[in-house]
Amino acid sequence: MPELPEVEVVRHGLHPAVSGATIDAVEVLDERSLKRHDGPAEDFIERLTGARLRGAVRRGKFLWVPIEPFASGRDSATDAPAEALVAHLGMSGQVLLRDPSAEAAALTRIRFSLTHPVHGALRVDFVDQRIFGSMAVDALLPTRDGAAAGYGLPLASIPSQVAHIARDPLDPAFDERAFLRRLQGKRTTVKRALLDQTLVSGIGNIYADEALWAARVHYDQPTETLSARKARELLEEVRIVLRRALDEGGTSFDAQYVNVNGASGYFSHSLRAYGQQGKPCPRCERPIVREQFMNRGSHFCPRCQRIR
Ligand SMILES: [Zn+2]
């Protein structure tokens, strides 16, 4: 499942292609990919055809493209967009930027034909193998704290479907104090809390395991027993892990400009716990263990990460 760094690779690739582009045509090849759109496929197509796009924005693992208001005779740049095209990547969703003549990828569910003032004709394919992802046109609401809604554009408005998602820990408007207070007030365990997107967004199974390993915290540690100092340390390790993955994504990104691929290539060469079961812990050399956790796995060092 794509986490913050993987979704940022998609956003980063999409942003220059969609900023100022106009949607000429929308084809919905599989209506199941519109399950979060409030209306039939015809409505989705009608609301997007002819729309001008402002850029690509991300909060945590959520991605959206604000749509310029259709305000004839007015300077639309000064008007705040009221709607956005929201993409939920789910488990396997990909947003592929294509040359218009490129063959359609298998499992393409929605296809957009765009015209960009500089890059010319472009195609964006929403590809999703397992259809846990989806696209929708959604209303933009003002953010509660008045700060920019996410990374990519300075707009302080967020799609209604994303409004309940917490800011991610790399967001300049992330409220660290409120996060730490809510974390310690929760009657849960620490990894469940890290995966709770209403508490902190962008973290999935991979980077949760990596940050817990770095902070030497057991995934099943009850949150109320985590000291304030340990909680701050864990948050800092989350940031370090996410930033490192972003840096690696940034360096491998340029070659992907015409093939933005959110689902491929986790930044696996720097993983120290996730998927490393049986391999020595890079800190103490005791083998990393994998335990069943929420239908997936938790990877940790039984020596460095004990429940305290
Ligand atoms: Zn260890």
Could you please describe the fold and organization of this structure?
The chain has 308 residues and is of the alpha+beta class. The chain is built from 6 helices and 11 strands. A 5-stranded antiparallel sheet has the order 2-3-4-8-9. Strands 1-6-7-5 form a 4-stranded antiparallel sheet. It has a two-stranded antiparallel sheet with strand order 10-11. Helix 1 crosses helix 6 and helix 5 crosses helix 6. About 5% of the residues have low confidence.
List the helices and strands and how they pair.
Layout: H1 4-18, E1 22-28, H2 41-48, E2 57-59, E3 62-67, E4 83-88, E5 93-98, E6 108-116, E7 120-128, E8 134-142, E9 157-159, H3 176-185, H4 190-195, H5 205-215, H6 228-253, E10 289-293, E11 296-300
Antiparallel strand pairs: 1-6, 2-3, 3-4, 4-8, 5-7, 6-7, 8-9, 10-11
Helix pairs in contact: 1-6, 5-6
The structure holds zinc ion.
The site of zinc ion has 7 residues, from loops.
Q: In terms of per-residue confidence, which ranges show pLDDT below 50 for 5 or more consecutive residues?
A: 251-266
> What is the highest CATH level, the class of the largest domain?
Alpha Beta
Q: What is the number of domains?
A: 2
Estimate what percentage of residues fall within beta strands. Answer: 15-25%
Which series of helices and strands comes N to C? HEHEEEEEEEEHHHHEE
Distance between the termini: 30 Å
Instruction: Catalogue the ligands.
Output: zinc ion
Beta strands, count: 11
Helical amount among residues, as a percent range? Answer: 10-25%
Characterize the quaternary organization of these chains: single chain
Largest sheet geometry: 5 strands, antiparallel
